Amino acid sequence: MNTPRKITTHVLQEMKLKGEKIAMLTAYDFSFARLLDRAGIDIILVGDSASNVMAGYDSTLPITLNEMIYHASSVVRGVNRALVVVDMPFGTYQGNSKEALSSSIRIMKESGADAVKLEGGKEVLESVDRILTAGIPVMGHLGLTPQSIHKFGTYVVRATDPKEADKLIEDAHLLEKAGCFSIVLEKIPAKLGAQVSNELKIPIIGIGAGSQVDGQVLVLHDMLGITTEFSPRFLRRYHNLSDEIQGSVKAYTGCEIGGFPKRTGAILAIGY
Ligand code: KIV
Questions:
Q1: Residue 101: partners with Cβ closer than 8 Å, 6 or more residues away
Q2: pTM of this structure
Q3: What number is the average pLDDT over the span 203-228?
Q4: How much is the pLDDT for 262?
Q5: For residue 234, what are the contacts with CB-CB under 8 A and spacing of at least 6?
Q6: What is the pLDDT of residues 79-119, one digit of tens each?
Q7: Which of 54, 81, 164, 270 has minimal Cβ neighbours within 10 Å of its Cβ?
Q8: Which long-range contacts (CB under 8 A, 24 or more apart) does 18-22 make?
Q9: Average pLDDT of the segment spanning 44-56
């Protein structure tokens, strides 16, 4: 069997030029990362959504740098082909470019990932510049930036008014000019997503940003239906793993889902 070609930032750039769509999903552990990689995913994002779906917090703010490095190094051990991008957690790059540099160096050195991602435009440009000087590829993230949820107040669609849309376009150009290899656009009008993708040379990956961008990203636990309480309009569920897993556990234990443990059958076991 041929060894699959490793995805690099250059490969992603070529994909944009050829009009090939880029597929990106999140993963936080070895087993899922290995499955995604074998299934041909182009980019695996070790998202700070780990704070929600792995740790059970109600925002992305609490997760720490050490925790992100733990998730990222587990993912890297499962991957041969995909580009592995790691979210820089809240508080490790905003307002202090030296700290941004040392945090990103720790991520790269201790996890073996290929790139980092951070949220924001002009206000984090100094951090982006400094990280890039160390030769670390940076992915931007504009639109709904969950680390700023306390500033926004809600998770509604961003950049619907012209002033915010203009700032987003300006920020996207600044990030490209600084040297970011790609940008994620989250929850913005489809027309704006298409405009940014047309104006910029680097690949634009959307999540709730319409179909006229260069690739799509989803949170793995949402698209597999492991999480059920989160249902934004853009989210397509490809599976209902939540029911399947609970059904399997019920088959094993003989208990009703959610009910008081009332065994109706024996726990299946095979002896030697
Ligand atoms: O943390 C994450 O999962 C993300 C995606 C929503 C893009 O940043």
A1: 127, 130, 131, 133, 134
A2: 0.94
A3: 97
A4: 60
A5: 187, 207, 208
A6: 999 999 999 999 999 999 999 999 999 999 999 999 999 99
A7: 270
A8: 21/214, 21/215, 21/216, 22/203, 22/205, 22/214, 22/215, 22/216
A9: 98
Residue with the smallest CA separation from ligand 1 atom 1 is 47
Distance (Å, whole) CA 167 – CA 204: 16
- 254: confidence class by pLDDT, cuts 50, 70, 90: confident
C-alpha span between 174 and 247 (Å, rounded): 49
Read off the pLDDT of each residue in 130-155 and give the average, rounded to a whole number.
96
Question: What is the pLDDT, as a whole number, of residue 270?
Answer: 74
The dihedrals phi and psi of 217, each to the nearest 5 degrees, come to: -130, 145
Distance CA 235, CA 222 (A): 7
Is the CB of residue 40 less than 8 Å from the CB of residue 57?
no
164 among known catalytic residues: no
Confidence tier at 269 by pLDDT (50, 70, 90)? confident
Query: How far from chain centre, in Å, is Cα 198?
Result: 22
Own/partner contacts of 229-233, CB < 8 Å, gap of 24 or more, are 232/155, 232/187, 232/208, 233/208
- For a substitution probing ligand 1, which of 32, 119, 219 has the most ligand atoms within 8 Å of its CB? 219
Q: Can you tell me the distance from the alpha carbon of 107 to that of 10, in angstroms, rounded to the nearest whole number?
A: 21
